[in-house]
């Protein structure tokens, strides 16, 4: 609910190409949040301070290569490897008041990291045109840990599949890319998807 209330823009998309048992994918995620609420960090009759107008911008790109190990009428499974790049930027205003004097300082911190990932992806085929796609990965590199997982229920038409699922993605930082302001970043929730073959 906090994300929906403060959401400026969000995007998730994947582009892939397959030949024989090999598949190359590029997964892109974009998120921009703008929090209008203020956070009081100091409040007394002489001096006060609060943080306002917090904006979080983040985007990630994951180039991935997968190889099919299992392909039966009921299930398919690919092993995958790749990398995940994350860029994150935090901006805020620090409003300080001393007696009757007020000053506003702008805060801006940004950073990025690369992490190698391994995992799996595939489909569980149900009756008719129904199937369950799934995906999971885990990785490390510039940070302690990043991982994601999602699954969905989908229906395939001739060249299009519609799906409804749930996704979680997370980063746990050791050397924080945002100036010590973030310990971890995660997003999870339901998703509606459209997949198109051409």
Question: How would you characterize this protein structure?
Answer:
The protein has 1 helix and 10 strands. Strands 1, 2, 3, 4, 5, 6, 7, 8, 9 and 10 form a 10-stranded antiparallel β-sheet that branches. The chain starts with a helix and ends with a strand. The mean pLDDT is 89. By secondary structure, the protein is an all-beta fold.
Which residues sit in consecutive blocks of at least 5 with pLDDT less than 50? none
Mean pLDDT: 89
The total count of helices amounts to 1
Oligomer: single chain
The fraction of residues in strands falls at over 45%
Strand element count: 10
Please give the radius of gyration in angstroms: 21 Å
- Sheet bearing the most strands, described? 10 strands, antiparallel
Structural class: mainly beta
In whole angstroms, how far apart are the ends?
A: 36 Å
Task: State the order of secondary-structure elements, H for helix, E for strand.
Answer: HEEEEEEEEEE
Instruction: Provide the helix percentage.
Output: under 10%
Please specify the SSE layout and strand pairing.
Blueprint: H1 2-6, E1 7-19, E2 22-35, E3 39-43, E4 47-71, E5 75-98, E6 101-125, E7 130-141, E8 145-156, E9 160-172, E10 184-196
Antiparallel strand pairs: 1-2, 2-4, 3-4, 4-5, 5-6, 6-7, 7-8, 8-9, 9-10
Give me a quick take on this structure.
The chain is an all-beta fold. The chain has one helix spanning 2-6; strands at residues 7-19, 22-35, 39-43, 47-71, 75-98, 101-125, 130-141, 145-156, 160-172, 184-196. Strands 1, 2, 3, 4, 5, 6, 7, 8, 9 and 10 form a 10-stranded antiparallel β-sheet that branches.
């Amino acid at each position: 609910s906090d994300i929906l209330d403060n959401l400026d823009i969000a995007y998730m998309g994947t582009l892939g190409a397959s030949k024989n048992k090999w598949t190359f994918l590029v997964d892109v995620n974009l998120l921009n949040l703008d929090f209008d609420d203020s956070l009081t960090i100091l409040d007394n009759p002489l001096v006060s301070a609060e943080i306002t107008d917090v904006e979080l911008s983040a985007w990630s790109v994951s180039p991935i290569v997968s190889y099919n190990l299992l392909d039966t009428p009921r299930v398919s499974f690919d092993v995958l490897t790749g990398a995940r790049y994350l860029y994150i930027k935090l901006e805020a205003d620090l409003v300080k008041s001393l007696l009757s004097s007020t000053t506003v300082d702008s805060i801006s911190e940004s950073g990025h990291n690369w992490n190698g990932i391994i995992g799996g992806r595939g489909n569980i085929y149900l009756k008719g045109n129904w199937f369950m796609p799934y995906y999971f990965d885990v990785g490390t590199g510039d940070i302690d840990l990043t991982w994601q997982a999602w699954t969905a229920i989908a229906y395939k038409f001739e060249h299009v599949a519609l799906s409804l699922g749930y996704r979680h993605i997370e980063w746990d930082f050791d050397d924080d890319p945002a100036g010590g302001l973030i310990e971890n970043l995660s997003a999870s929730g339901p998703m509606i998807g459209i997949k198109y073959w051409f």
